Amino acid sequence: MAGAGQPQKDGLRSLSLSGHVGFDTLPDQLVNKSIKQGFCFNILCIGETGSGKSTLINSLFNTSFDDSMSTHFHPNVRLKAQRYELHESNVRLKLTVVSTVGFGDQINKEDSYQPIVDYIDAQFEAYLQEELKIKRSIFNYHDTRIHVCLYIISPTGHSLKTLDLLTMKRLDSKVNIIPLIGKADSISKTELQQFKRKLISELVSSGIHIYQFPTDDEVVSQINTIMNGHLPFAVVGSTEVVKIGNKMVKARQYPWGVVQVENENHCDFVKLREMLICTNMEDLIEQTHTRHYELYRRCRLQEMGFRDTDHENKPVSLQEAYEAKRRKFYLELQRREEETRQKFVQRVKEKEAVLKEAEQRIQAKFEHLMLMHQEEKLKLEKKRKALEEEIALFNMKKANAELLQTQPMVSTPVSLKRDKDRKNSSFT
Amino acid sequence: MEPQERSMEAAAVPQELPPDHGVHELFGYVGIEAVLEQMKVKTMKMGFEFNIMVVGQSGLGKSTMVNTLFKSKVSRKASQPGQEERIPKTVQLQSVTHVIEEKGVKMKLTVTDTPGFGDQINNENCWDPIIKYINEQYERYLREEILITRKRKIPDSRVHGCVYFIPPTGHWLRPLDLEFMRRLSKIVNVVPVIAKADTLTLEEREEFKQRIQRDLKAHAISVYPQEDFDEDPDDRLLNDRIREKIPFAVVGADQEHQVNGKRVLGRKTKWGIIEVENPAHCEFPMLRDLLIRSHLQDLKDITHNVHYESYRVRRLNESNRPALSSNNGLPGRDEDGDESNL
């Protein structure tokens, strides 16, 4: 009966404002909300043991995270994740640094990339599970998805190692990869140019998509384009400070000179920090969410059997598939319940049978005993009767004998006496 | 993609986070705060969407109010000569969308009007079309959200705020007002205002407000800003001050007059000019500040995080229990076939 709202598309015409309304504070409102919530940023650092991962992270964030040097003798690749909270002016950054432990150390490196892929997938899966829940709390969910992967290439000066190629190929559709050349102070400038060109051409020819800094926004497009040309960044990390002139700078001191970390002529560290943190952090987070996560979600949901359109190309709601799954699940649950119940009933029956048998045995024994008891009793009765009869007989005989004695002693006293004696002797 | 072993109905596992090492001191400037700037730039490029609904009987000045709020001719007024708009027999909802820009910030504003609300003799269930509309917007968003291939930015047509106009009787809230606000405050942010407040003196306004606040509390109607969603003590302080003044007594005007040599928006009467933007005359500036300057993002956030989520929970649980008693005036099952109860 009532008409539902039909948005009249006036072609979305623009209105001109005749005064100050005030919604230009909207971005500030949004920013204030984010400040209160804090930001989450998760970095994955992949590189061989001793390639400079921990030092690089320490230098990037100007702080010293707890890290001891790891050995080369790990049997397989593990991932070590640690959370930190950094404060700068009023921004709270919840930083999670995940580094590989034992990457490239094994003799057989076939499975090296698998733990990394699994870890990234596990973070996506956790987010997906939270999103699919019915009662969810996604706005205060601590986002653990990896936003950027810093891949540290060893400064051999030749080309990419096969392990690097394989790993990056597996990861490029799951995470934003920024390739870096670690410990770049071991390569000279000319070698570095050649190396970079070789690396880029190898990456391109293998079809590996590394992260390109976005060039669509006028504010940052120019600088981003320049930076895109400098990939991979050749970085040097250091947490030690050396006095140069009258300033203390982060540097590495060699007998032949000092490599300053923050000097653009010496290495690309400043470029990396600029690009990673100052200019593109938000874009990295967004790309992770809108591209990599959506791809993962799509594949996963299709795997689970959901479809957007069924075979007749009619839109199928996720809810129906949900419903079907739920039904299946409940049926399964019921079946298992039945099964368990049957088993239980069976067990009870068995136990009952055993007990019954025992009861019967005991009953039989009892009856047997009763029988024996009766028999004994009867026997004893008989004996008693016999004895009583004997006593009666004896008494009678005694009485007879006394009677005969009181009678005059006649004819056969001897025989009587002899009888008496016989009688008496039979009693001895 | 490796097939994961976990089934979708896995029990809720508390999130396992890596070990927390706490707050670390920075030895020097890193540049983390530049992320704020990046965020601002990004949002300005994307633009904002804001959907507002105005509800009230005809003649309370809804369209004028919207025009005054956004300082432009957003709605066409029903009282203008030449508009042959009779009171519709049932509540019709009309949405008008405009794009406005200020200092580089683009906003897509949608205003939904509800002519016919409360105008009939028998006003039973006149809130049903409104509730249906609001739920339809949630449904649209939900459908987009659960698609497998979803859009980069889901178009948001959900109602972020509903301004309810209370007629300035000066007595109490009428049963219609109470019923409506009770039902709607559960699914959308309701901001009640006293319309045409220039008919009340300041003392009458105060008393009216007190009575309304008592009524709202007695019926457990939580209007925006809701007490349960205050995040921290600062918020609570700010919102408490706002809550003391709810509902705002507003006057709308879109004509300018001369006062003391300045041109101000106001209503000219024989006994004086009521300045709309003067806090001593009416509380329009407070309403504008609340809706636009300080709490616009908050309105959107509460709509997304609270109202939309509760709609989603209800909707996704629906098919489980076929005999669901009608609650909150929620309309019956969807008519289309593929949502049939299993």
TrEMBL record, chain A:
Septin-type G domain: residues covered: 37-303
Coiled-coil blocks: 341-404
Keywords (A to Z) from UniProt: Coiled coil, GTP-binding, Nucleotide-binding
Entry GO MF terms: GTP binding
Claim: Coiled coil is one of the keywords in the record: yes
The UniProt record lists the keyword Nucleotide-binding: yes
CDD domains to which the protein is assigned, alphabetical: CDC_Septin
Annotated family: Belongs to the TRAFAC class TrmE-Era-EngA-EngB-Septin-like GTPase superfamily. Septin GTPase family.
Protein name: Septin
Organism in which the protein naturally occurs: Phasianus colchicus (Common pheasant)
Annotated gene: SEPTIN10
TrEMBL record, chain B:
InterPro entries: G_SEPTIN_dom, P-loop_NTPase, Septin
Keyword entries, A-Z: GTP-binding, Nucleotide-binding
Any one annotated GO CC term: cytoskeleton
Domain of life: Eukaryota
Region (Disordered): 319-342
A Pfam short name: Septin
UniProt GO molecular function: GTP binding
Residues in Septin-type G domain copies: 46-318
PROSITE patterns per record: G_SEPTIN (PS51719)
GO biological process: cell division
Biased composition (Polar residues): 319-329
PANTHER family from the UniProt entry: SEPTIN
Family: Belongs to the TRAFAC class TrmE-Era-EngA-EngB-Septin-like GTPase superfamily. Septin GTPase family.
Protein name as catalogued: Septin 12
Biological source species: Phasianus colchicus (Common pheasant)
Taxonomy of the source species: Eukaryota, Metazoa, Chordata, Craniata, Vertebrata
